[in-house]
Amino acid sequence: MSIDTDTARKVAHLARIKVEEDDLPALAGELSGILTFMEQLGEVDIEGVEPMTSVTPMRLKRREDVVTDGNMQDRILANAPDAREGFFAVPKVVE
Quick one: how far is CA 18 from the chain centroid? Predict the structure, then answer.
């Protein structure tokens, strides 16, 4: 697939990247190269290949999904400049 300079300009605009007019042909060439590589990857036969989470076979560590308060209220409030009754105290901002 080939990308022209107009398409490269649109991609740069969508990505919010400022690209000078002189640099658009180079950007179009790079994008075309990336798409060509993606097309080559699509031609690879992956029939029977298991998905991987890592290059070394390992099981992901699992833990029980339990909601807790962390049991660290005192340690967290120790960093607060002002704490009252187990909460952060902040100045009143609304009358």
Answer: 21
